[in-house]
Amino acid sequence: MTPLKLADIAKMLNCPLPAGADTLVTGVAMLTDAGPNEVSFLGSDAYINQFLETRAAAVITSRKVKIPDSTQKVVLRVENADLAVAQVLERFAPPIPRPAAGVDFSAKVHATVTLGAGAAVGALAVIGARSKIGPDSIIHPGVIIGEDVSIGRGCEIFHNVVIRERVTLGDRVIINAGSVLGTDGFGYRWDGSKHVKIPQIGTIVIEDDVEIGSCVCIDRAKFSATRIGEGTKIDNLVQIGHNVVIGPHCIIVGQAGIAGSSKLGTGVVLGGQVAVRDHVTLGDGSSAAACSGIANDIKPNTIVSGTPALPHRQNLREQAALRRLPALLDEMRKLQAEVEELKKRTGANG
User: Fold this and answer.
1) Do 174 and 192 meet the contact criterion of CB atoms below 8 Å apart?
2) In the annotation, is 140 catalytic?
3) What is the pTM (predicted TM-score) of this model?
4) What's the number of CA atoms in the CB half-sphere (13 Å) around residue 333?
5) Using an 8 Å Cβ cutoff, are 4 and 91 in contact?
6) How far is CA 243 from each of CA 209, 229, 264, 278, rounded to the nearest angstrom?
7) Residues 110, 140, 242, 312: which is the catalytic one?
């Protein structure tokens, strides 16, 4: 990594020239870990004590954060500290090892495959007949791509990914190691004596600028297509069932599971371990807290939580009431005892 002057970082973030502008910065670190040649960031007032104790050369902070007037720290003020740090991290990121353009001698690429200009196919990769790899796309070692697959421009498919037959990827799609696209949808029917497999003859369409984490499984459709919308980001260990349609710019966090034929609108957010039942629709801008179980349609711009998932505020009220149950039971027992005592006295006096 090439060090940057603090002045260069300030210029990158459109901040005024800070004190110590010639300080060489070698990287980015947490407030508690940063040394005098690193920058750090502060996005919330909750970490102000760590800010006061940090040894960082400078701290990138959101304008909304209240910094004590007496501080001697070098502060770079920005609208959004997280986005600003992302810019800086790009400058310090070590290069990812990638295969050279062309086809490695150990790869097995069918003679009918079309490779765009600048495409790279790594060692021991396998690409099936009639598949198309777009310009500047990178196929890392050990990837298996089936027949009639179409991969767009500038995609990156990491080690040991499996993309089965007839799957389509748009441009600039990233698929991280170990994911599988195109397994048969989980479709069976009981015929009275055994589970009968329903043929899964559909496909998968991944639109532009989608990123898929490691060990994600996306099932092909029974017919038509399982579709992942433009700009959607999927975390590790997510299961997406057959004929699911996920809209643009959604966030799906790790270990979420989406059952077949569900539909997510634009900008939907699913927290970790959320389970979505089949044939459910989640409206645009809706979100579900971690570990929610969604069994019914969710209206647009609604936040839900719990199992079964309820509007978040309602769920919080119910959880608060549930915590009061032991005390309420004690009160009820005392009232019962008083009523019984009153009955005894009334009977005695009668």
Assistant:
1) no
2) no
3) 0.86
4) 6
5) yes
6) 20, 13, 12, 10
7) 242
DSSP string across 101-149: SEE-TT-EE-TT-EE-TT-EE-TT-EE-TT-EE-TT-EE-TT-EE-TT-
79 to 4, 36, 141, 315, 323: CA distances (angstroms): 22, 24, 41, 33, 40
Q: Are 139 and 122 in contact (CB under 8 A)?
A: yes
Supply φ then ψ for residue 101, to 5 degrees: -55, 145
User: What pLDDT, in 10s, does the model give residues 204-224?
Assistant: 999 999 999 999 999 999 999
Tens of pLDDT along 122-155? 999 999 999 999 999 999 999 999 999 999 999 9
Q: Which long-range contacts does 39-46 make (Cβ < 8 Å, 24+ apart)?
A: 39/6, 39/9, 39/76, 39/88, 41/81, 41/82, 41/84, 41/85, 42/81, 43/80, 43/81, 43/82
SS3 284: coil
Q: Count the alpha carbons within 13 Å of 70 in the hemisphere toward its beta carbon.
A: 1
3-state class (DSSP) for residue 221: coil
**CA angle 155–238–164, rounded 5-degree value:** 50
Kind of pairing between the strands at 303-305 and 310-311: antiparallel
Q: Which residue has the tokens 């898929």?
A: 212
Q: Where are the beta strands (DSSP E) in 217-267?
A: 217-219, 225-228, 233-234, 239-240, 245-246, 251-252, 257-258, 263-264
Bridging pattern class, strands 180-183 and 162-163: parallel
**Residues 265-287: tens digit of each pLDDT:** 999 999 999 999 999 999 999 99
CB 314 within 8 A of CB 332: no
Mention every residue, 6+ apart, whose C-beta is less than 8 A from residue 350: none
Residue 284 near residue 302, CB atoms below 8 Å:
no
- The structure tokens 């809209």 sit at 247
* Token reading at 208: 């532009």
A 10 A CB-CB count for 55 gives 15
